[in-house]
Amino acid sequence: MSHKQLIESVLKGVNGTNIRKVGEKLLKQEKASVVGHPGVLALAYDSYDPSLTYADFAKLVTQRQMSMTSTPQTIKFDLLKRRDPKYFTFKDQYLLLFNRNIDLRDYLNITKDSTINRVRVRWRPLVEGKDEHSSYLGERHELIYRKYCRNLEAAYLDRKQYFDVVNKEMTQETISDEPQLSSLIERIHEIEKKCAVVWNMPMESKQLEPYFSFYDIVHSFDMYWNRDLSKTFKFIRFNTQEDCKQFKKNYHGYVYDETNPDVNKILVETLNGM
């Protein structure tokens, strides 16, 4: 049992206010020591809302709140939305990636009482037990993200490319020649703007382009299908971000057959969350 787990188990059985305060103080001290480790350069934020953007997190920092060690202009971070690397679905978590631990600590201190959409923010430092020389995202999380990027770029090209690579393993050795994470994030953000995944399209609409000719769809294909359950899960690449947004606006939640609304309700998720 870890030190933190031990404290938490003790607190569950304690009713005395003073003893509880001591335990809570120890937990805060442990969290502070974790956050202050130079190798901790990422914060996790859990949310069911896939539509949050960089601006939502950046605006939490104001000139008045900023500490003396940094300014709003010097606190820089990258934002990742955690997605399933195979099916691209949102995994209810955002990762804020900082270049320096001091920036992370400043951001954490400034935003600790802030809210996003009237929900108080609760940050969790991303720790993987690596030393200060390890990747700022952590090896395991970076591999998952890079695999997502590889599979998305393949799907963006065509169906064959996607199925050729989707189940291939990825290791630290295989990504040694890959681009820097910051440039990869920027590149993937541009692709995400024009892509969506869709549940429960009618089985007969294997190719969407003829049915939705008023949208500029580059291509679409089934990532998953089950004819017995009449279940489909499609990837769609649009030519423009606007068409992608409009498709979601017009069809998300649309029931095309009232005889079984749970099965026949179209659900659309755009990869940039908008």
Automatic annotation (TrEMBL):
GO BP terms in the entry: Group I intron splicing; mitochondrial mRNA processing; positive regulation of mitochondrial translation
GO molecular function terms noted in the UniProt entry: mRNA 5'-UTR binding; pre-mRNA intronic binding; translation regulator activity
Give any Gene Ontology cellular component.
Answer: mitochondrial inner membrane
Q: Spell out the protein name for this chain.
A: Protein PET54
